[in-house]
Design brief:
The chain has 287 residues and is of the alpha+beta class. The chain has nine helices and four strands.
Length: 287
């Protein structure tokens, strides 16, 4: 599910900004961007995020701005220049053509970076935790709004699935009789006249009726629909449970399509599969 949350807080002479964003993903994929000096906060960030999200590609960015903040990088340029000169001289003494690159310059500058002016870890940790919690609250609220929209869509599609199954159930009893008429028509066209009460005809029709009986599948489908509807109304995570129920629904729909041997039922089976696939695509992102 998609979501975004942002919060700020003062931290000494700095301003702390925490942003949390996510896009759809079946599992939780967390990335964290922190000032280098605060790498130890990554575990804390992970714990707080997992309390609010179990799915999605979630990115957390912690930024410190203001006086001496992470955006005010301060290098010892004199020391870096001296190191650059020594490196050029060393290359020349070894007969190596010295061709500095931007990457080399950045490496030299970072090696001569002055001490960080960031607040120490003990001072920063509670502020970071509180600010992240505020950002996560906004983040969760946005995801909840999206979840409410998805719930309405799932309910609508579940109603459509139920209506389609009702149509299939109404058509199913007519299939054996239609098959008998088709069988007799083929026999007549082949010049073979048989009485409708002929034992061979009755046996063939009975065997067909048994093969295309979908009563059990329809009963299980309706049961799965009830389970899915109840799950949508429940509290807590529903994503993985619903995926299992949808898998079982798909199994029953496939069996009906295989057994029915009827054009009208086949048309409804195609619609059932289409709607089920739309639900599956959305539910894969729901927690």
């Amino acid at each position: 599910m998609t979501g975004y949350g942002r919060a700020t807080a003062p931290l000494g002479t700095h301003t702390l900004t925490v942003q949390v964003s996510s896009v759809n993903r079946k599992t939780l994929d967390l990335t964290v961007k922190l000032p280098r000096e605060w790498d130890s906060f990554e575990t804390l960030v992970g714990e707080l995020v997992r309390q609010n999200a179990s799915r999605g590609k979630v990115h957390v960015e912690v930024e410190l701005t203001g006086s001496g903040g992470a955006d005010g990088i301060d290098w010892d340029e004199t020391a870096a220049a001296a190191l650059f000169k020594r490196l050029a001289q060393f290359s020349s003494s070894r007969g190596v053509d010295f061709k500095p690159t931007p990457e080399l310059l950045l490496t030299l500058l970072n090696s001569q970076r002055k001490g960080s002016a960031l607040p120490d870890v003990e001072t920063a940790e509670p502020v970071v935790a509180d600010t992240l919690a505020q950002a996560l609250k906004e983040f969760a609220a946005m995801r909840a709004r999206e979840g409410a929209s998805l719930l309405a869509d799932f309910s609508k599609r579940l109603d459509l699935l139920s209506r389609l199954v009702g149509t299939v159930a109404a058509r199913a009893p007519q299939v054996p009789a239609a098959s008998r008429e088709a069988l007799l028509k083929r026999l007549r066209e082949a010049g073979l006249e048989l009485d409708v009460n002929d034992e061979r005809v009755l046996k063939e029709v009975a065997l067909f009726a048994d093969r295309c009986d979908i009563t059990e599948e329809l009963t299980r489908l309706r049961s799965h629909f009830e389970q899915f509807a109840a799950l949508l109304k429940s509290n807590g995570e529903i994503g993985r449970k619903s995926e299992f129920i949808l898998q079982e629904i798909g199994r029953e729909i496939h069996t009906i399509g295989s057994k029915a041997n009827d054009l009208e039922i086949s048309k409804n089976v195609i619609e059932l599969k289409n709607e089920l696939e739309r639900i599956r695509e959305q539910i894969a992102n729901v927690e």
